[in-house]
From TrEMBL:
<keyword id="KW-0472">Membrane</keyword>
<protein>
    <submittedName>
        <fullName>MFS transporter</fullName>
    </submittedName>
</protein>
<dbReference type="Pfam" id="PF07690">
    <property type="entry name" value="MFS_1"/>
</dbReference>
<feature type="transmembrane region" description="Helical">
    <location>
        <begin position="219"/>
        <end position="242"/>
    </location>
</feature>
<keyword id="KW-0812">Transmembrane</keyword>
<feature type="transmembrane region" description="Helical">
    <location>
        <begin position="44"/>
        <end position="67"/>
    </location>
</feature>
<dbReference type="InterPro" id="IPR036259">
    <property type="entry name" value="MFS_trans_sf"/>
</dbReference>
<feature type="transmembrane region" description="Helical">
    <location>
        <begin position="376"/>
        <end position="394"/>
    </location>
</feature>
<feature type="transmembrane region" description="Helical">
    <location>
        <begin position="345"/>
        <end position="370"/>
    </location>
</feature>
<feature type="transmembrane region" description="Helical">
    <location>
        <begin position="138"/>
        <end position="164"/>
    </location>
</feature>
<keyword id="KW-1003">Cell membrane</keyword>
<dbReference type="InterPro" id="IPR020846">
    <property type="entry name" value="MFS_dom"/>
</dbReference>
<keyword id="KW-0813">Transport</keyword>
<feature type="transmembrane region" description="Helical">
    <location>
        <begin position="79"/>
        <end position="98"/>
    </location>
</feature>
<feature type="transmembrane region" description="Helical">
    <location>
        <begin position="176"/>
        <end position="198"/>
    </location>
</feature>
<dbReference type="GO" id="GO:0022857">
    <property type="term" value="F:transmembrane transporter activity"/>
</dbReference>
<feature type="transmembrane region" description="Helical">
    <location>
        <begin position="307"/>
        <end position="325"/>
    </location>
</feature>
């Protein structure tokens, strides 16, 4: 039996983990609308913004490779508490060191917390729900997990934009507020039930295995490719949305920058919830259609230029990417061998966050000598091809008995 000593039930623990998951993911995107303020403070170019953002993604990938799978052996609860405390440490770094080196380090540390959190929280939510309600369809836990993940990412830019537009000290106050909330979350998590067997003697440490589950490698590769392609779109809106709003649409408003990123992530989270009980093949049909239509809208909005078309395109594409990502997680979880769910999910998130980092770095590099609109058009075309291709492959597999 897994260790279950706690002060709350599995049902209550499920919701505690969901809220803490949302909180940490939200803090990871709070800086999105604040980047222009940091630029004004230190006078660095937009290419530095992509480096700061990439430091976050590098931290996520590093953490997923080295610690993201450890909850299978050391316990879900312990890893969650550690992840939340590391996120709190990044808040401290933002407060005490706001120059470019400090921003890079703070984002790197914040990425480490996300890498330790995502696969662990996803696996923990599924296990807590199955014990609290063993007869319930697993789609409920998957939907809550996806909503916490993407919903948190959606809330962060909106919260950051509100702080930047309406409250004093926008480069200080958001980090203070989240530091307090994160410390409280770490304390509350200590009462959540454990759901894995923690051996008396821990096995020898090893990094994440970079191998797909042997039962169906092709299905896992398709799921990973879909996650990579989808997170490429998220990366664009999380890191460079304020830059495009100013340079292409002449919209310097900080709240507008936060609301733009929020709308894409919120659409992704809402799509997961709305289509949760729809058959996977239908979900993937909707995903492919939304990705194609939405990315064409993003490109048209940039060319015309029409901000409303750009935003609607981002929202429609967000729905498609959200469904693709949920299908990727469901596929990987279903392929995972017993006792290795955390490890398998960690690998999917590792691939996804590579998609978050690498294309954005490329975009930042090309922006140094190519006009913004051209870069956005090429990026949109590549993401369209990648997401539609991955969605069609997964849909074909879902159609096969």
């Amino acid at each position: 039996m897994a260790e279950t000593r706690s002060r709350i039930s599995h049902d209550a623990g499920f919701w505690v983990v969901a809220v803490c998951f949302t909180l940490v993911m939200a803090y990871s995107t709070v800086p999105t609308p604040l980047y222009p303020l940091y630029q004004q403070q230190d006078g660095f170019p937009v290419s530095v913004v992509t480096v700061v953002f990439a430091a976050y993604a590098v931290g996520v990938v590093f953490s997923l490779f080295f610690v993201g799978h450890l909850s299978d052996g050391v316990g879900r609860r312990r890893m969650l508490v550690i992840a939340v405390l590391v996120s709190a440490l990044s808040a401290v770094l933002f407060l005490v060191w706001s120059s470019v080196p400090g921003l890079i380090l703070a984002r790197l540390v914040n990425g480490v917390s996300i890498g330790a959190l995502t696969a662990t929280a996803t696996a923990h939510l599924g296990e807590l729900r199955s014990r609290a309600r063993p007869n319930e369809n697993a789609v409920v836990a998957a939907s809550v997990s996806g909503a916490a993940n993407l919903g948190g990412l959606a809330l962060g830019p909106l919260i950051g934009g509100l702080f930047a537009e309406f409250l004093p000290a926008p480069l200080v106050l958001p980090h203070v507020v989240f530091l307090v909330l994160l410390l409280a979350a770490a304390l509350v998590l200590t009462a959540v039930p454990e759901t894995v067997d923690v051996p008396a003697e821990r096995p020898a440490y090893r990094p994440q295995r970079l191998a797909a589950p042997p039962s169906s490698r092709s299905a896992f590769v398709a799921a990973g490719f879909a996650a990579f392609a989808g997170f490429s779109l998220f990366g664009l809106f999380t890191s460079l949305a304020p830059t495009f709003l100013v340079g292409t649409f002449d919209q310097p408003d900080h709240l507008a920058a936060g609301a733009t990123a929020f709308s894409v992530f919120a659409a992704a989270a809402a799509g997961q919830v709305v289509f949760a009980r729809v058959r996977l093949r239908v979900q993937l049909t909707v995903a492919v259609t939304c990705c194609a239509v939405g990315l064409v809208g993003v490109a048209l909005g940039a060319v015309l230029p029409q901000l409303a078309v750009f935003l609607v395109g981002g929202v429609v594409a967000g729905v498609g990417v959200g469904l693709l990502f949920r299908a990727s997680i469901a596929t990987a979880s279903g392929l995972a061998a017993p006792g290795r769910r955390g490890e398998t999910l960690a690998l999917v998130f590792l691939v996804a966050y590579c998609g978050l980092a690498l294309p954005v770095l490329a975009v930042g590099l090309f922006l140094l000598f190519i006009p913004q609109t051209t870069v956005l058009l090429v990026f949109s075309a590549l993401v369209l091809i990648a997401t539609v291709s991955a969605g069609l492959v997964m849909r074909a597999r879902a159609s096969t008995p």
